[in-house]
Structures are given as C-alpha cells and as structure tokens.
Design brief:
Elements: E1 11-18, H1 22-33, E2 39-41, E3 54-55, E4 65-66, H2 67-81, E5 84-86, E6 89-94, E7 100-105, E8 112-121, E9 125-127, E10 147-148, H3 151-158, E11 163-167, H4 171-180, E12 186-190, H5 200-208, E13 212-215, E14 218-225, E15 229-236, E16 242-246, E17 249-252, E18 256-258, E19 290-292, H6 304-323
Parallel strand pairs: 1-2, 1-8, 2-5, 8-19, 10-17, 11-12, 11-17, 12-13
Antiparallel strand pairs: 3-4, 6-7, 7-8, 9-18, 14-15, 15-16
Helix pairs in contact: 1-2, 1-6, 3-4, 4-5
C-alpha cells in the first residue's frame, strides 16, 4: 500500500499503543514504568468498558466497579507511569519503513504522521450487528432507542417491564437473555436454526427459565416504532410465517468483529479476522516491532482481566525486543 505524506512525520515514540481498554492501558502502565514513554491513541469511542455498567469479575474490586470508573483508574495509573494520551484515531501503519510510521488524527484523508520503534495493537473487538430495517443508527433506525448490542450496558433501561428480544444462539446470547430476565416482563430468544450452539449448561438454563421463550428457525425481519422501538416482525423460516409482536427492546448477541480495518495486510490474521500471534504465549505479530494484545487477538476468552494480562505481556515483549536491538534483532 502507498502512504502519501508519511515521510513528513515530525514526532517519534519508542512505543505507540493503539487502543485504551484494559489491554492498552495495562500495556501503557508497564511501558511507562519501563521508561519507554508510551503514546496511547484512545480513538473516538474509547473502550467498550465505557459503555458497561457494573464490572464484577475484575480482581481488586469487591462489590464490583463501574466500567467507566475502572477505565478512569487505569488511565490515571498509566498517566502516573509516564504515558501520554491522544484522543484521536489511528488510520494506518506504514510497515515499509524503519522506524514504523503511524497515521493519526481526525481526518483519515489528511492524517498527521509520527514514527514509532514499536506499536502495540490493542483495539479490541466490536459487537456484530445485522442489517435489519429499523435497527440502524440513522433517523429511520432505533439504535439506542430500543436496539443495542449490550444487554449489560442497556438492559436495565431499555428492557424494563417490556418484551425484550435477543438475537443469537451461542453462550453470549444465552447469557444476555438470562440477564434480561431481571428487568423484562418476557424475554424472547431468536435462534435462526433449530438448536442452540451454547454449552449444555447455558442452553438448559435458558430452556428451563419461565420468563424466556425460544423462537426456533426464526429471524427478525423489521423493527418499527415511534420515538422508540415498539414492535418487530418475526419471520419463521420453517413455516414461512411472519408475526408482528410488541417489543420494547432488541439485543444483538451474535459475536464480535476485531477492529483491524486500519491495519496493513502485512499483519497476518486468522480466517476469522483476529490478529495472528506468531509464537505461542507471546504477543509478536507477523511484522517485527508490532505486537498485539487483548480481544483483537483473542477470539476465545474476551475478558477484561485476560486482556489486561496480555497488555502487560505485550509491553514486556516490546521492551525486551527493543533492548535486544529492535529492528536489528530477531524476534526471540
């Protein structure tokens, strides 16, 4: 790929970290304490934890902690360690030069450039959504007006005392459906096949719950309403029947897409799009000097505490790689 203007880089960092979730912030803490003066690009949306309510499984917080509060504490700790934060997007990385060149800023068509000895990719994975009429972000859509991809984030408000629908058939969908039973009058799990992909334990919990109804061989055809979502059309692929149902909320629970769209093809990925790590237990990618941490390279666990641990590993790998000679040394 061509990177016009990359030769105009006027700023340099030993470590650039892309992403400010648990992985990126932990990497920043470790890199800062190693006196590498990391520069962290937070992006415009920030971490998914900023849209999360109670986080009850992150060690050190009996009784839980709000997602935004956890991010604030980690950001403050990284700042104390010597990290600098930029609230901009990274639009590309030029891997053809040494040091690496990073495009950043507000305008992807006219980015600013800086050089970096190492880059840690910690951009996470975004929830998948289906292109169903009425579920989009525009004026004709009900996104965040009844439609969401995070029951934990929005369920207490959106689903309260309503019929709530969840799309999906895996563990995540079952967990969302069970969680929504705390608030919704009824929960409807919409499964496109005739079986759940979830674990036996999770599937049985859903099947046995008195407030959950499963719609097999079904999909949501359209969402309608006024100021907020009010109804949806449920299509049964086996019978061909369409049914209009009252609905106060709809949650997508069909997986995630790793945020890698800004990365060059030289950085290898798995068939599912997650970044490929070249050595077991390490954070090296296929491009020397570029490391990956957190959900962007983890399609199995996708947990904040796991991402934090991998962020620490990435910073340590980057530090040792630089100490060994950087681009003049092999990845060991």
């Amino acid at each position: 790929p061509e990177f016009p203007g990359s030769e105009q880089a006027t700023r340099h960092a030993k470590v650039v970290i892309v992403g400010a979730g648990p992985a990126g912030l932990t990497a920043a803490i470790y890199a800062g304490r190693a006196l590498l003066e990391p520069v962290v690009f937070c992006g415009l949306k920030g971490s998914q934890l900023l849209q999360t309510t109670d986080v009850e499984n992150f060690p050190g917080f009996p009784g839980g902690i709000l997602g935004p509060d956890l991010i604030d504490k980690m950001t403050a700790q990284a700042t104390e360690a010597g990290a600098t934060f930029e609230y901009e997007e990274v639009h590309g990385i030029d891997t053809s030069t040494r040091p690496l060149r990073v495009a950043h800023g507000w305008d992807p068509e006219a980015p600013e450039w800086m050089t970096a000895d190492t880059v840690i990719i910690a951009t996470g994975a975004a929830a998948k959504r289906l292109d169903i009429p009425g579920t989009g972000d525009g004026p004709n859509g009900f996104w965040q007006r009844g439609v969401s991809a995070c029951a934990v984030c929005d369920g207490a408000i959106m689903a309260k005392d309503t019929q709530s629908f969840v799309i999906g058939g895996g563990d995540a969908a079952c967990e969302e459906a069970l969680y929504l039973t705390k608030f919704a009058s009824e929960v409807h799990l919409v499964v496109r096949r005739d079986a759940l992909r979830a674990s036996v334990v999770m599937a049985n919990r859903v099947k046995e719950h008195p407030k959950i109804q499963i719609h097999w061989n079904s999909n949501v055809k359209e969402v309608t309403g006024g100021d907020r979502m009010e109804k949806l059309i449920l299509h049964n692929s086996a019978s061909g029947e369409d049914v209009e149902m009252a609905a106060g909320s709809l949650f997508f629970a069909i997986g995630h897409n790793p945020v890698t769209n800004f990365l060059p093809a030289e950085i290898e990925t798995h068939p599912n799009g997650y970044l490929k790590l070249t050595q077991p237990g390490r954070t090296f990618t296929s491009v020397p000097g570029i490391f990956a941490a957190g959900d962007v390279s983890d399609h199995v666990y996708r947990q904040a505490v796991v991402a934090a641990g991998r962020g620490a590993a990435a910073a340590i790998d980057a530090e040792r790689w630089l100490a060994a000679g950087g681009f003049g040394a092999a990845q060991e």
